[in-house]
Specification:
This protein has 62 residues and is an alpha+beta fold. Helix content is 18%, strand content 44%. The chain contains 2 helices and 4 strands, in the order βαβββα. The protein has a 4-stranded antiparallel beta sheet with strand order 1-2-3-4. Strand 2 and strand 3 form a beta hairpin. The radius of gyration is 12 Å and the shape is elongated. The protein binds zinc ion.
Length: 62
């Protein structure tokens, strides 16, 4: 599976270089509009993460 990076609200407070963190155990889902999203945990602080995915990325990760 490709590595997912997402904005972490907690790590973001440490500075701009900490904004994008690797998402652990991402769970990909598709909403009623056909939009893919991923939920997971920040690899750095363990906080919850959420990210919208492109259709191509979402289909690749399902
Ligand atoms: Zn974090």
């Amino acid at each position: 599976m490709a590595e997912l990076k997402a904005l972490c609200m907690k790590c973001r407070q440490k500075g701009p270089e900490f904004q994008m963190q690797t998402m652990k155990n991402p769970v990909v889902s598709k909403n009623e509009k056909g939009r893919y999203s991923a939920k997971g945990a920040c690899a750095t602080c363990g906080g919850n993460m959420f990210k919208f995915l492109s259709t191509a990325d979402g289909e690749a990760m399902m």
